Amino acid sequence: xxxxNKQNSVSCITTGALGLALIGLAACSSGDDTTATPxxxxxxxxxxxxxxxxxxxxxxxxxxxxxxxxxxxxxxTLSGVFGGSTIGDMQFSAGNWLFVNLxxxxxxxxxxxxxxxxxxxxxxxxxGNRPVHIYRDQTDGEVIWTMMDGxxxxxxxxxxxxxxANVIPPSKTNSEIRVNCSTTNGGSVTIxxxxxxxxxxxxPDIIGKVCLLAKGHKVAAFSSGAGxxxxxxxxxxxxxxxxxIDNDEASSSYLKMTHRIDxxxxxxxxxxxxxxxxxxxxxxxxxxxxPNNSAPHGIRWSNLTKKVYSIQENYKEIxxxxxxxxxxxxxxxxxGTSYTGYGVxxxxxxxxxxxxxxxxxxxxxGVIDLNTAAGTRTDFDIDQLDGTSPGAFKFxxxxxxxxxxxGNAAASTKKDRLFAFDASTLTATTPALTLIREIGLIAxxxxxxxxxxxxxxxxxxxAGEAKYIAVSNAADNSVSIINATDNLIxxxxxxxxxxxxxxxxxxxxxxxxxxxxx
Length: 518
Hints:
Radius of gyration: 22 Å
Shape: globular
Number of domains: 3
Number of helices: 3
Number of strands: 35
Distance between the termini: 26 Å
Strand order of the largest sheet: 1-14-13-10-9
Helix content: under 10%
């Protein structure tokens, strides 16, 4: 999307290969300039890293200057600008814009962290019904994808996304194009491009919306690399399928849904309370598949194997998918284990498995080594995790550190903990995770929901090295700053009411690949 860095760019409207990817604008811009390039010292995001904090209680967004062991303090708090919606997932682009999902307002908030001494709220852009997860495109970091789950109980995106007038080709006379996916009986994905911040830069705009045929919670993975097709894989939990969207800007089917993968397996449906019938489906047709019970809820890309990995929670298995042929090349059976979630190491070699061994027993961790033909699994026994419930986890980009939060589930006997592991020992002859420190956090907070009391993110600098960890504390409305060298809390900064998710922002981090991953 290099063409989109120019203010005068060519736009196009396309019809999806399945008749469903309604809008695909390969090159477009909004024409609305942001504040001029700030003078030296006048930019919040250029002065230091920022920690963005989702304050769930008062529905505000606080930015905290992350300077080091001391002098960390609130920069500003954005309030009254999010349409009364609780803030959801956040992500920033290679162009340094911050994108914030607003599920209750069916929109994405656009925030400029660079052009002023404090982050600037630009606008809310309507994207569709209940955006939940949001991703930065791995093939073009200035492109952002947000997933529409649709309303609970329905899963159908019946809210229009609007393509602004100035990205419509001159041959069109209507003032705007409104895209509504309600007729496809499924959710959708909406795609942004951010251009750049500063003089001549453009406010991010929607460049495409893909209407899916599948209902349910949606997550995405991006295939890329030499000789690898550029595609986006979007799983839908209720339908039990994966949609494939062409992500090659040079392709005639760019931003179109070109294929669907049915995850139904008769052998896995047998024995379930209401087994589904696994039909032969048309992967390029326009008819919805028969829903199944596989429940895909987690999809990852491995930079090592160049394969997509999808976990089917009800089937208790992970499928490895070839991005070129869409064939399932390996499966990893998790039956008989407690594993329900997973991530991938930065080098793509290991799938990190995480499960709850029925509190108060503790959190269970393991890895699958994708570099072995059989996908050898190693299960860890880590005494310090006894009594915990599973929480969020993140790797540093260099793969040397892994951070795991303990959840604050009511049945847990050990709560309010952050565990710092040496993950470089995963590559030993027998993979291992070596605990560096168990860090006690501020106690208390809401125990309802997943990891509600604390959330965390990692400041990464240099060659992918973890420098600081920011952890929110719901109990006392604060964020703790932890030095990643000695793993000690250095300072705690007061923020808004009931802080939840945190995102560590640093200008240029996305382009350099210096952002922790789960």
